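Assess the record.
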Amino acid sequence: MQEDVFPAAEKILSDVENIFKKDIDLTSFEIIPVEDNQNKSPVLHDNNSLGLASWCIRPLFCYVYNRLFDLRLNQCRREHSTVISKWLLGALLLNPDILTFWNMRRQFIRNGKLDPMEELRFVNIVLYYKAKCFEAFSYRRWILKLLLFKNQDAIHKIELLFRNEIQISSMAANRYSNNCHAWNHRKYIISMFETVCISVFGSLLDKEWEESTSWCNSHVSDYSGYDYRQFLLKRLLLRKRRYDQTKICSNVLEKRRDIIIKFVQNALHDYNNVFLHTNSYENILNLLHGVNFTKYSEVTFEQTLINLSYWVEDCIINTKLLQTFSGHETLWYHRRFLVSSLLALNNSYTNFFLYKIENLNSTVATTNISKSLLEIALKMQNKDLIDVAKRISFIKPYCAR
């Protein structure tokens, strides 16, 4: 059989296209191992799932691949856009890593031949089959920019789009471990959310933090998931009180302060200081960061304390995981990130009494760093963790630094 000759190709492609059109709840695509055609249709559809028999994959892909490149090279007659769209659907469903084919679909969207929302649904299925496909995620972001431009005043629609993208990135991350493209896509969506839907961004950030905690607890070696967690932590450390928020809830303040107090007391063996239990959040932060200055009038110390509590919370979670899974390199690298973050936090607080983005990217020490109560507590925890790791014969590069 010649590579560009497959009599059943057009029928198979039409069947697949019809399933996409009729089943709006289609969720998945898989290749089903079948040795020969057995005189049956290779297209399988059941319970919102699409399948193709493996025997037809190679000849079908060769058929659409050659047709599409002949078209681009003007070596075949001009085809109607619906036929080309059908070929592209088959080609990208089987091999979504070909940028040329995605660019052809981009051109169809520009010309009004394809519906952007339907394209997002198509890419959902592509990512189910090949969850770590950079080109598919890039195509989604391109479509989102178009939809964002068309719906600038429809904030509710934009918010729904963004939340759907978060679900898609979760699906892709679950189907392919260490899926950096899925987590980077999620970062992009969170950044867009922060810009466009600022009124609900705070609640989204809290929810993402909780979901990240659950994910990292059950995927202790997923370095891409931890990279996303570090991205969230930086956002939380830099979070400011909303312009329409007149007062921070006292219950939230008490809860976040207790997290910090327990961390210090557990690390320093029931360390107690009257300033840790005071209602002066300025005094608490000064003690934690080892500084002793007069009050800086423009700073909201309550918000700074809440922001710091997320770093402390992450240290506590990381400590518990290392006590159980001390042989996992990802956890130690994340610990290293927490240590470098503390140096940056101390430096920023010493200079500004809050945390600034330019300081979080620098770990230059100040003269007051050695007096930081947080640093002393973290050093004690690190010493205990390293001793435990050595006892069970796991010596990590972190131990030598």
Summary: Strands lie at 28-32, 43-46, 49-53. The CA atoms of residues 315 and 338 lie 7 Å apart. The mean pLDDT is 89.
